[in-house]
Structure formats: C-alpha cells, structure tokens
Amino acid sequence: MTIFECITCTFFFFGFFFSFIGSIPPGSLNVSILQLSLEKKIAIATRFAFAVAIIEYPYAWIGVQFEYWITSVPMVVGNFQLIAAIVMTALAIFNLWPTNQSPTGFAKRFNESGFRRGIALSILNPMAIPYWMGFTAYLKAEGWVSLSSTGLLHTYVLGTSVGALALLLLLINFAQRLAPYVQGSRWIKIIPGLVLLALGLYAFAKFFFG
After folding, report:
1. Are 60 and 157 in contact (CB under 8 A)?
2. Helix 74-96 vs helix 187-209: angle between axes, to the nearest 10 degrees?
3. Average pLDDT score, the chain
4. Looking at residue 168, what is its pLDDT?
5. Which helix (H) or strand (E) holds 183?
6. Average pLDDT over residues 153-169
7. In 3D, which of 148, 113, 153 has the Cα closest to residue 14?
8. What is the distance between the alpha carbons of residues 139 and 88, in angstroms, rounded to a whole number?
C-alpha cells in the first residue's frame, strides 16, 4: 500500500468512525428507523437508511467547506440548534397526536416510501452541518487530517456517509430481534414520540438558557 493510499484509508476511517458514533444518540432519524423496524417495515426502514446516508454526504461537505465561517459566527450554530428543536418537537407532536382518520393517498405513499421520507426528514435535520464543522476543526487542529485536495476531501466525506449507513443498518438488525416481543404494542408509537419531545424540549432549553 502506498503512502497516498494509506492516508486515503485513514481519512475514510475518521469520517466513518465519527459518523458512526455521532449517529448513536437518539435523534429524529434513528428513532424513526427504530420505529419502522419494530413495526417489521424492514424494507421501508432500509430505504430510509440509504436516504439518510445520501443526505449526510452533502451536509458533511457543507460542514467542511464552511468550517471557518461557521465557527466564527456563533449565531449560525445557534440557529441550527433552534431548527433542530423545532423539527424534533413537530415530529413528536405528529407521532403523539391521536387520529382515527385513514391517511390520504399522499400521506400513505409518503409514509410507505422510506426513501422519500428519509430524504425529507434528513433535509429538515441540518444538525449534521455544525457536527461535521466541529469534528473537522478538531481533527485538523490535532493534525490528523488535512483536506488539501479534492480527492481526500471526498474520501473523508464518503466515510461520513458510509458510517451513518452502517449504524442505521445495525439499528435495523437490532430492532428485528426485538420485534417479536413488542409487535402490536401501543408503546411502539408512543415511546418514539416521547423521546423526540424530550429531545426537542432539551434543544429548546439549550438554545434559550445556554
């Protein structure tokens, strides 16, 4: 293996590793993945996971490209936090709101299309941008990465996309093992909503009270 190939693999690993661990904390995307998987909608959950991984790529790229600008304007990071709080709270209300109505044609297609649903929710969840801004700044400060070429930059960003996909597919597999024990339980729909609500309120608290 040449020195360039070794460096390329290292950059891919850093992107993969930090994306993998960054996807572990409960959020609107992985909670949705778990809910779909527990309901045995594995195909939908898998398409959802691939959609999330696709959006992770441009968001990570934006985070890297505007690293200095974002870190120099604290108000920008604060706005992203507020956006995340609003999105999570809205999703929580949507999950918890009782309804006996049959879904409309569009709503049914949207919910059953994991890919379109994943794309939409990922776009509305831009916290990946400040996340990758922060981690990239740290890695560069430590001298672990130097994204001086287009090839190295895209190798690093590709690692972030693959890392997110790996964690979400692992969640799907883990949820499948639990499905026989929770199938049909009303808590399947209630718990994700409560988690999202708690995350939304926590994000609001951090935004307004620091």
Report:
1. yes
2. 150
3. 76
4. 92
5. none
6. 92
7. 153
8. 29
Tell me how far apart the alpha carbons of residues 126 and 151 are, in angstroms, rounded to a whole number: 24
Q: Which two tokens stand for residue 74?
A: 């604290």
Q: Cβ distance 125 to 28 under 8 Å? A: yes
Greater pLDDT, 166 or 73: 166
Distance from first CA to last CA of the chain, Å, rounded?
A: 48
pLDDT at 64: 86
DSSP, collapsed to helix, strand or coil, labels residue 123 as: helix
Q: What is the pLDDT of residue 106?
A: 44
Q: What is the DSSP string of 125-152?
A: -TTHHHHHHHHHHHHHHTTS----SHHH
Contact 13, 126 (CB under 8 A): no
CB 161 within 8 A of CB 56: yes
* pLDDT tens-digit map of 118-128: 888 888 877 77
Does position 98 have pLDDT exceeding 70, yes or no?
A: no
